[in-house]
Write a structure and sequence with these properties.
Elements: H1 11-16, E1 51-54, E2 59-61, H2 62-79, H3 84-87, H4 107-127, H5 138-156, H6 163-171, H7 177-200, H8 205-214, E3 220-230, H9 239-252, H10 256-269, E4 280-284, H11 290-295, E5 305-309, E6 313-319, E7 324-325, E8 329-338, H12 343-357, H13 362-372, H14 378-381, E9 384-388, H15 395-401, E10 411-416, E11 419-431, H16 432-456, E12 458-459, H17 461-464
Antiparallel strand pairs: 1-2, 1-12, 3-4, 3-6, 3-7, 5-6, 8-9, 8-11, 10-11
Length: 473
């Protein structure tokens, strides 16, 4: 859902990464640990008594909103710490006095918008719980109890640290243990409602066709050929000669065959034996590079060539065909991974495959996987990789799975850098464009269904403005 895309915040994960041994303040922080100057507030201000975001069935007080705000702030800083100067964000200065790169908002407004959007989404979904028949049950109680115990255990692992002190050390003085639990309670219920909501939305063939026609450019790919002349070992004086080579290839190329003839001497000079297909590429619409701008220019005609000058190379591009619809499809495959690349591991893979072929069913394959696989993901996702898209996996695995001749029940053994994979082809899946369209259509329909609930959520900007940014040092 466009409005609710930030819904399922795994907020507790950040808590688990906080070390109470490092409780302290960043350089320049004031005595409360704030990374921005504390605004003057009513001395009787109690963050648990004022509500920044309110719904019909649940609300977030400012203790909860402080947690959400500083979660988004802290996550951003932790993720992009080395790049903060490029973003123009200084954690030692007030966020209200620094302008972000998002529509000229201050950094305070940027992180507040993130926090409010996620709060509104969660509250709106919880308000819709009764409509969708979603109730809090014993399993949910168990989830929340386990979460509470985990936070308490993490806090008590350090001397004289209470759960509240643990939370405040991570998210500021106005945050609290109760606020963390309440946010996660609401987030958990909202996730249940979201799942029911999406499962209730039907996408028809008419929906697919209408969406594709309205967004046709998103589903086009453009074929082209490219060959690069690298600059990395050359001096400035040698670059003009390299550019002349690239220009000569471009001038001699007007179709794939002439392109290959023009680059063949350089392929052989490098001691390689690449075929023409090695230089074939496809690109989707919407890129911003110089090459993509040239390729998608409406003036392009088949046979056009150009040389793009980058810091790393001179690259010759051949425009060889008109854009076409991306008809790529997903595949589902099962695999058993055996770590190792030696003959012994290969022999083991062959033996397991031979055993499977005595009863070539998916159930038998899964049983063998449970017994033999070393894939660490088996416990969570099993042996089936469903709805893989081309490029999702390492090359050798990908090439086997996406072989155009592949059929249900095909088997094989593939060696990758992870080891030997015993392969079982389950099925050819849906078109990738159709999967993307389904997600977008469901998002749009969900927005319409949820609009009344979302519009009923109230925010109090004056109350929210009391929140103080904090990032632990």
């Amino acid at each position: 859902m466009k409005r609710f895309s930030a819904l399922i915040l795994l907020l507790v994960l950040l808590l688990s990464a906080v070390s109470c041994d490092g409780i302290g303040k960043k350089p320049g922080a004031d005595e409360t640990g704030d990374t921005a100057p504390a605004e003057t507030r009513d001395p009787n201000y109690d963050p648990t008594k004022v509500f920044g975001v309110k719904g019909k069935t649940c609300s977030f007080d400012n203790a909860a909103m402080t947690y959400l705000f500083n979660y988004h702030y802290g996550y951003f800083v932790s993720s992009y710490y080395s790049y903060l100067p490029y973003f123009g964000l200084d954690v030692t200065k007030s966020l209200k006095e620094q302008t972000s790169q998002s529509d000229g908002m201050t950094w305070y407004d940027y992180f507040m918008t993130e926090a409010v959007n996620s709060a509104q989404s969660m509250i709106a979904l919880c308000d819709a719980a009764e409509h969708f028949g979603v109730k809090w049950d014993e399993a949910d109680d168990a989830y929340l109890l386990e979460l509470s115990d985990d936070v308490r255990e993490a806090a008590l692992s350090s001397p004289e640290v209470t759960p509240d002190k643990y939370v405040r050390a991570s998210f500021g003085e106005d945050a609290s243990f109760d606020a963390v639990i309440e946010v996660n309670r609401i987030s958990h219920l909202a996730a249940k409602v979201s799942e029911v909501l999406f499962n209730s939305i039907e996408v028809t063939e008419e929906d697919y066709e209408a969406y594709r026609e309205a967004n046709i450019e998103q589903y086009l790919i453009l074929p082209f050929y490219a060959y690069s002349f690298p600059k990395e070992t050359l001096t400035e004086e040698e670059l003009p000669a390299l550019k002349e080579k690239a220009d000569a290839v471009a001038a001699a190329s007007h179709d794939p065959d002439s392109f290959y003839e023009a680059i063949k001497p350089y392929i052989e000079e490098d001691g390689e034996t690449y075929s023409l297909s090695y230089f074939y590429n496809e690109v989707g619409f919407g890129g911003t590079s110089d090459a993509e701008a040239w390729l998608w220019d409406e003036a392009r005609e088949i046979g056009d060539t150009t040389v793009i000058d980058s810091s790393a190379s001179y690259t010759v591009f051949l425009y060889c065909a008109e854009p076409k619809q991306d008809d790529s499809r997903t595949v589902s495959v099962r695999h058993i991974l055996l770590e190792g690349s030696g003959d012994e591991t290969k022999a083991q893979a062959e033996a397991i495959l031979a055993e499977f072929l005595t009863d070539p069913t998916a159930e038998h394959f899964t049983a063998l996987a449970a017994e033999h696989t070393t894939d660490p993901g088996f416990q969570s996702v099993g042996d089936l990789y469903a709805d893989l898209r081309e490029g999702d996996t390492v090359q050798a695995f990908n090439d086997w799975a996406f072989d155009p001749a592949r059929q249900h029940g095909d088997t094989g053994i593939v060696l990758t850098e992870y080891g030997y994979h015993i392969m079982y082809f389950e099925a050819l899946g849906d078109y990738v464009w159709k999967q993307n369209a389904a997600e977008a259509i469901k998002n749009e329909k969900a927005d319409g269904i949820m609009a009344p609930y979302f519009d009923a959520v109230e925010t109090d900007e004056a109350v929210l403005d009391m929140i103080i940014p904090y990032f632990p040092g």
